[in-house]
Amino acid sequence: MHELAICQSLISQVEDIASEHQAKKVISILVQIGPLSGAEAPLIKSAYPIAAAGTVAEQAILEIETMPIRVQCNNCHEETIAKVNRLICGKCGDFHTKLISGDEMLLASLELDNTIH
Amino acid sequence: MCDTCGCNITSGNAHLVTTGGKHALTEDGKSAITVLKSLLSENDHQALHNREHFDQHSVLAINLMSSPGSGKTALLEATIDALGNELSIGVIEGDLETENDAERIRAKGIPAIQISTGSACHLDAHMVHDALHNIALKDLDIVFVENVGNLVCPASFDLGQHRNVTLLSVTEGDDKPSKYPVIFRAADLVLQTKSDLLTVLDDFDPKKAEQNLRNLASEVPFFQIAARRELELDAWLDWLRNEVKEHLERIARNESIKPAIQPEGAQLHMAEHSHSHSHTQEHVHKE
Fold first, then answer.
1. Do both B30 and B76 map to the same domain?
2. Full domain range(s) for residue B13
3. Does A6 touch chain B (CB under 8 A)?
4. Which chain A positions have a beta carbon within 8 Å of B32's beta carbon?
5. Cα angle, residue B27 at apex, residues B10 and B3 outer, rounded to 5°
6. A33, A50, A105, B78: which one has the fewest Cβ atoms less than 10 Å from its Cβ?
7. Of B3-7, B24-28, B39-43, which has the strongest mean pLDDT?
């Protein structure tokens, strides 16, 4: 949902960081998206070239890391893999769990080209 | 460490900041930078300002979300009838078109601002910020933001509210929490509305609805209400009274709160956000 707006926000952040580091080119961008974030990785991938066109990130490779859904149980303390709409503990079935990973929508890191052209 | 304050560090991604550090220079002049910043940070930043405005005026802000037609406005009308003499209420309405909902609220003698989004399917922090220009917060105890009827998008956009309430009407299907996990997980309270219709329905089981909610690891209260018949509203009204009271106590301790479901790192950010900076345009909020 709103993946183009999300990409525009992403490019805006990337541009700021590139400028802060005086880099003329972005080589690669790593984005972390979790299934509970409200954004869909394939849609980000297709919206990205549109948002990146004409910017310092134009030729950057976008890598999207899909984050696993992991919960930690307040009852038995185990960390288990869960599903997007079944977040109960995989070990003991208790629903008092904490989401450790799975709702990310993050610009995780990027690689800049600082070489003088 | 993210480049502002360390928010967004979770146990799931902490390893990214401990190995290599934020800015690792590679041999060939390239630099790898760890960022870990939310892609919605611009909206989140505006939301933080909205929250500060609410807090400065000791106002509790509640975001109501649901499908279109689940009974958000009817709930507000019944709430105003029940609590209007006890608490000062203001409402920010969000719809694509018409002022219908704001007019219903104003008919009760309550201030209401209508945001007409045109084609935007959710409210965001900037829209709410603009609406706040036209509402006198200093006289209010609670501001309800009635979001656009939509079970998908509103969940992802922080408006600066303190609490999220998601409505589910009995004509919608008891599996809605499973189908729309994000918006139901985002709730601090889930209200099953139009519950008086259960007698004529054979396909909605409140127990299943609640179980589907619990399967999302949600521990929040689940109340069955019927606003139009003013049935069973006491639990909702008591919840509101308690939230107002707790919020005033928080403000006295110089603290605030965001809706319960949030990235764990964002809690850190809340406490540390103390920098001042000017808005892009000079403006003064209505006092």
1. no
2. 1-37
3. yes
4. 109-112
5. 30
6. A50
7. B39-43
Least confident piece of the model among B118-122, B153-157, B196-200, B266-270:
B266-270
The DSSP output letter for A86 is B
Question: Do B64 and B150 reside in the same domain of the chain?
Answer: yes
Mean pLDDT of chain B: 85
Instruction: Check A111 against B30: CB less than 8 A apart.
Output: yes
| pLDDT digit string, tens, across residues A51-63 | 999 999 999 999 9
Q: Both B17 and B124 in a single domain?
A: no
Residue of A nearest to B178 (CA): A85
Residue A84 sits in which domain range?
Answer: 69-101
Q: Are both B33 and B156 inside the same structural domain? A: no
B11 and B127 belong to one structural domain: no
| pTM recorded for the entire structure | 0.85
CB B192 within 8 A of CB B220: no
Whether the CB of A91 is below 8 Å from some CB of chain B: the reply is: no
Task: Note which residues in 242-281 of chain B have CB less than 8 A from chain A.
Answer: 263-264
Place of tokens 């003499």: B85
Helix (H, G, I), strand (E, B) or coil at B32: strand
ipTM: 0.86
The answer to whether B110 touches B140, Cβ cutoff 8 Å, is no
Whether A115 sits inside 8 A of B28 (CB atoms) is yes
